[in-house]
Amino acid sequence: MVKLIITRFMSVIGFTSLALTTTPQAQVIEGQTSWIAGDQAGILSARADGWDYGAYIDSVFNKRLDDCLEDAFSTHAMQDCYGRDHGSWEEILTEEYHLRLSDVSDPEGLREVQRAWVRYRDLKCAFAGSSLGTAGSIAGTSCAAEMARQRALEFISSNSCSFIEGCLW
């Protein structure tokens, strides 16, 4: 069964269409505007079938960031690359967080944990960029992008795990 994917993801990565030749379980449909063509059950089913959504998203975003940085010859251009990367990961993080929130026994506990994580991220990344002069803006934004990436992949793993036997978390 072919799984259908697209939505904000396509607008996040900046493509209007994308052919997936390395992930036969998924097919991106041009012109869709919802997170998943149909509903979120499709992507969760694809995860249960063994498709590694986190690795796929990570590879797409890493390639896009590398391509952007290759042409970035100024602090402003590099800041823009990391800013776009951060925005992309934040969108995925938000979607995965809401998906997890709908599936936990203690949603208020998860909200509390996520609020604490956001405070930690903000403080850590502000500190990372505080003493580096003009490079500080790049350090702070790249810190936020990397932390959003890690947290999004954590939620993706957690959401996928609920459909795969043998997961311990």
Please give a handful of descriptors for the protein shown.
169 residues, mainly alpha, 2 strands, disordered N terminus
Describe the 3D structure.
This protein has 169 residues and is mainly alpha-helical. It is 64% helix and 4% strand. It has six helices and two strands; from the N terminus they run E-H-E-H-H-H-H-H. The chain has helices at residues 8-13, 41-48, 53-70, 75-101, 107-128, 135-161, and strands at residues 3-5, 26-28. It has a two-stranded parallel ribbon. Strand 1 (3-5), helix 1 and strand 2 (26-28) form a beta-alpha-beta unit. Helix 4 packs parallel to helix 6 (135-161). The protein is flat and about 45 Å long.
Q: Could you write a compact summary of the structure shown?
A:
The protein has 169 residues and is mainly α.
How many strands? 2
The overall pLDDT, averaged over residues, is 75
| Percent of residues in helices | 55-70%
User: Strand portion, in percent?
Assistant: under 5%
Distance between the termini: 28 Å
| Total of DSSP H or I helical runs spanning 4+ residues | 6
Radius of gyration: 17 Å
- Which structural class fits the helix and strand makeup? mainly alpha
